[in-house]
Amino acid sequence: MPTPLYILVTGATGFIGAHVVDELLRRGHRVRAATRSLPKGELMKISRPQYAAQLDIVQVPDFATLASFTDAVQGVDGIIHVASPFTYATTDNEKELVKPAIAGVRAVLEAAAQEKTIKRVVITSSFAAVLDVGRRPPPRFTYTAEDWNPLTYEEAVAKETSAVVAYRGSKKFAELAAWEFVRERKPGFDVVTLCPPMTFGPIAHPVERLADLNESNAMLWAVASGREMPVARVPFWVDVRDLAVAHVEALCRLEAGEKRFVVASGEKFSYGLVKTVVEEEFEWGRGRVAKGEQEVDDSYDLDGETAGRVLRVRYRRFRDTVRDFVEQAVKMEEREKS
Ligand SMILES: NC(=O)c1ccc[n+]([C@@H]2O[C@H](COP(=O)([O-])OP(=O)(O)OC[C@H]3O[C@@H](n4cnc5c(N)ncnc54)[C@H](OP(=O)(O)O)[C@@H]3O)[C@@H](O)[C@H]2O)c1
Question: How many angstroms separate the CA atoms of 338 and 335, rounded?
């Protein structure tokens, strides 16, 4: 791909999307940032005055219809589709998680297929689309980008299904919709999907209150602030800044085309480890962190190395990720109290 590029980023005012926007801007690309909320988009732009000429904001209020993206894709060279519902506070999982995730992918790809300038679409899938909860060691095994979550659509949307499981379904069926679209429609662009596990790190998107933190960072804050020790469903994670690099490399590297990558640090984590890091890194940590212990589950593995090699990602250490986020969260808390 020629540089600089003009890239549409969806979910640009979310946790991961904002870092993807920043990584593109840092490398000199132009970004069209899609958001549901223009005020949030404007906040993003105002807080990056040095990039005013490279960044424009587009409002896409409902990504469930094809028409919603037809204007947003005009004249761009590529798309990084990050937006998808990621919340466990649901009342109707199919309506709030599964259907919009699939509809979002289809709408972006349909619109992209009308725009001849688009060469590649990178989609943020998730390790949730890879995980098979029924597969337990021993024997020890390693998840790779070849693996798929065996959940059926019916299981994902069943009334008794929890939001956690429905979210896993939303990511699986949204990603499958993308691969199916490419297979059947043979568009003029190729697709790359990234399947990150728990993603942590400092925030770059507009968040007014700690109560509005994205799902994954909210877990770190729950430990640091002493609220609770959450359950670590998997021991795999990645730093949001490394994941942003992976997105941009996935967009630009020819050899990444038509591939699926699991982007994950080789180091494993537990919320017990979060507690240790906070106690060691912050003076206030010992008196405040959540009670309870949690061991790192080192009984199975995930291959993040392949993505690291192809996409040139040097994964950060867990300690640095936790420290950088908690440092920022504590400042937010001080501001909230004052
Ligand atoms: N954080 C993790 O641990 C993690 C791990 C693996 C994969 N992922 C994936 O990464 C992506 C971003 O997640 P995140 O952690 O950055 O969460 P986030 O901060 O909640 O961001 C989600 C983004 O998606 C947009 N969005 C959500 N529902 C939407 C809908 N119905 N219509 C249009 N836009 C919608 C939001 O738009 P607004 O800003 O306009 O509200 C927001 O920008 C998601 O695809 C998620 O599945 C996250």
Answer: 5
